[in-house]
Amino acid sequence: MCKVVQGIGNKIGEGGCAEVFEWEDGSKIIKLAKPNTIPAALQAELHHCQTAWACGLPVPRPYDLVVVEGRSGIVFERIYGDPIIKRFVERAVEQSRTQQPIDIMKDYIEAKITAKLFHQIHSHAVARMPSQRENIKNDINRAQYLTDAEKAAVIAELDGLPIKQQLCHGDPNPGNILVRDNDAVIIDWNNASTGNPEADLAEYVIMIRYAILPPHLPSEASVLLDATRETCINLFMEEYERLSGIRYADVEPWILPVAARKLVADGISEEEKRLLINEIRRRLHIC
Question: Which terminus of the chain has a lower count of CB atoms within 10 Å, N or C?
Fold first, then answer.
């Protein structure tokens, strides 16, 4: 049951499914659902974040479900930190302005921070969470860009992959990772599940490799991203392998099903979806 309350502070962020506002004395935020988000989705996100919090993971402390002016929302601890994507954009603009060479050490530091964060998450096995594999299959079947035969072929590849039961975030993009005092906090747990860490890692690799940055970001960010995509992936995977023993070769088979499930995502452009479709069909042809 949601508690009905009134009054919010300044708006501080917005995503595809929610708006974020200051709450109470500023030590908390409220994530208010947009019309395209059903209350059950908020209930699930709260449960997932409570589960992660109970595991001692670096997540915002979740408090309660509330209703504000007829809109459902979740109250969280407010985290003061910069998203990795914001830090990346600022670095790109500064390097362009000062004509500095690419500083790979900063990419290395952030790759280490991110790999450590993912390893912390994946070190836990939890109960009462959605099945990652079923979520992926459902998304693949909803993908309008693939034929029925292509969907069946991708799912057949997925069915041949090993089964694990680890906690996975489900949307590990750089906008959901906040850096605070050289440590990371991860937000937006609505897609969390129990399954294979390799799927989370594949999601991250795909985002770095194929992302098309939004047009409102400075062009310098796209230039830097294009110059460092594979380096960032290699640095990240080297650190994750050091921590976990999982190699890029273990992640590679998951690229196909995770790329297919991303075709239903609202937050990526048609251009990015075309890149993913081309990659999916290339891999199916090889298979």
Answer: N
pLDDT in tens, 106-159: 777 888 999 999 999 999 999 889 999 999 999 999 999 999 999 999 999 999
274 shares a domain with 188: yes
Q: Can you tell me the mean pLDDT for 74-95?
A: 88
Pairing relationship of beta strands 3-5 and 62-68 according to DSSP bridges:
parallel
Burial code (b: 16+ CB inside 10 Å, e: under 16) for 163-201 equals ebebbbbbbbbbbbbbbeeeebbbbbbbbbbbbbbbbbb
> Does residue 120 sit in the same domain as residue 238?
yes
Spatial contact of 114 and 238, defined as CB atoms under 8 Å apart: no
- The parent domain of residue 139 ranges over 82-286
Q: Are residues 212 and 112 in the same domain?
A: yes
Q: What is the pTM for the complete model shown? A: 0.91
Q: How many domains does the chain contain in total?
A: 2
Asked if 60 and 32 sit in the same domain, the reply is yes
